[in-house]
């Protein structure tokens, strides 16, 4: 994968960065790399698989796209990695969504979530709980590395093995910053390692520890020089990201909630602050139309649009009242008619 240095990544955000929002960001100001929302490997290898496939829906405009996996069972990680790399998932998605062509979905790599701090996943031994279960973390990484290499060979893409990144996204530690965790991960010669600069205990409640991310970038230089280090946490402008990359020797910067404040956050010069209310309303209208076209079978509930309403419909007189009316809409038709007949200018 050819990426600039530093490169910018749209963070995986569950119920946010689906294909619809990724396509919107591709048209406002595209990052260099996209991640899917996290998808559970144990669910994907169960009878519940069809319900999870919408999380893997993608189009040609959101490229390159990394699939983020989470779960417990190394065998299921292996099977999913293989099916991502050999095109099985792409075929199934194309069969479910006739307007998506199989060859449009060309996943560029796999990331393993070892950072989510949410209680239900951690109690089950997944995500950031793997910080405390290094044996299982190793088994999972090896399963994904082997599964993706096998899948690429099956698909006749064996020459891409070294180019198909297997990466981990994690935090600084469990209760305390613990660099032995990152040394452990780097021993697996990952292609990329994304660090959200907080411990699991800190959730998102304290400022991001950029010095610690910088220390991990230096560890990488001695332990696994080819691993790209991506810093993540509280970045709200591209310039801030560029400065952090320089200060801490990072290869990439990942931005999550920053897109809520500025959908053009990846732009060299964001127009967001100068956009008219009508331009913002038009952007939300495009989002709602794309949502309706994509999720024809109600795979996503209309209420999931409310968080995007807060993104676009803001920063102008009357925005709050208008937003409240839009968020009460009972159907997509009702929502679109309010947007199209708005008298705000
Ligand atoms: C609504 C929401 C959903 C998230 N879902 C995921 C996820 O599926 N996988 C993941 O690795 N991180 C997830 N995260 C964490 C973000 O990717 C990111 O690490 C975190 O928000 C810190 O970066 P930021 O300050 O740029 O937002 C989520 C965060 C938010 C706010």
In short:
The chain is of the alpha/beta class. It has helices at 19-28, 41-44, 49-52, 74-85, 88-96, 119-123, 134-154, 179-186, 210-223, 238-248, 258-261, 277-294, 306-312, 319-327, 332-340; strands spanning 7-10, 33-40, 65-70, 109-114, 166-170, 192-196, 228-232, 252-255.
Q: What are the main properties of this structure?
A:
345 residues; alpha/beta; TIM Barrel; 2 domains; 15 helices; 42% helix; 12% strand; binds flavin mononucleotide
Itemize the secondary structure elements and their pairings:
Blueprint: E1 7-10, H1 19-28, E2 33-40, H2 41-44, H3 49-52, E3 65-70, H4 74-85, H5 88-96, E4 109-114, H6 119-123, H7 134-154, E5 166-170, H8 179-186, E6 192-196, H9 210-223, E7 228-232, H10 238-248, E8 252-255, H11 258-261, H12 277-294, H13 306-312, H14 319-327, H15 332-340
Parallel strand pairs: 1-2, 1-8, 2-3, 3-4, 4-5, 5-6, 6-7, 7-8
Helix pairs in contact: 4-7, 8-9, 12-15
This protein binds flavin mononucleotide.
């Amino acid at each position: 994968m050819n990426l600039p240095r530093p490169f910018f990544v749209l963070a995986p955000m569950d119920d946010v960065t689906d294909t619809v929002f990724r396509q919107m960001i591709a048209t406002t100001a595209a990052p260099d790399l996209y991640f899917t929302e996290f998808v559970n490997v144990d669910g994907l290898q169960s009878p519940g698989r069809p319900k999870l496939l919408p999380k893997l829906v993608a189009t040609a405009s959101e490229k390159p796209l990394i699939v983020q996996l989470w779960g417990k069972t190394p065998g299921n990680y292996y099977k999913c990695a293989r099916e991502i790399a050999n095109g099985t998932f792409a075929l199934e998605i194309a069969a479910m969504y006739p307007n998506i062509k199989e060859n449009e979905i060309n996943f560029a790599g796999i990331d393993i979530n070892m950072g989510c701090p949410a209680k239900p996943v951690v109690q089950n031994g997944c995500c950031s709980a793997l910080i405390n279960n290094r044996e299982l973390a190793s088994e999972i990484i090896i399963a994904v590395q082997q599964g993706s290499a096998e899948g690429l060979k099956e698909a006749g893409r064996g020459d891409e093995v070294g180019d198909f990144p297997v990466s981990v996204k994690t935090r600084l530690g469990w209760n305390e910053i613990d660099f032995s965790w990152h040394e452990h991960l780097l021993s697996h010669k990952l292609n990329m390692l994304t660090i959200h600069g907080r411990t699991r205990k800190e959730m998102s409640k304290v400022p991001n520890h950029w010095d610690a991310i910088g220390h991990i970038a230096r560890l990488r230089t001695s332990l696994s020089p080819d691993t790209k280090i991506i810093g993540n946490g509280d970045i709200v402008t591209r310039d801030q990201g560029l400065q952090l990359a320089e200060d801490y020797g990072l290869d990439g910067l990942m931005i999550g909630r920053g897109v809520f404040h500025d959908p053009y956050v990846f732009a060299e010069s964001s127009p967001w602050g100068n956009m008219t209310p009508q331009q913002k309303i038009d952007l939300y209208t495009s989002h709602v139309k794309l949502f309706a076209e994509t999720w024809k079978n109600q795979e996503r509930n209309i209420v999931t649009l409310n968080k995007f309403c807060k993104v676009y419909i803001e920063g102008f007189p009357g925005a709050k009242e208008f937003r409240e009316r839009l968020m009460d809409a009972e159907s997509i038709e009702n929502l679109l008619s309010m947007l199209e007949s708005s008298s705000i200018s």
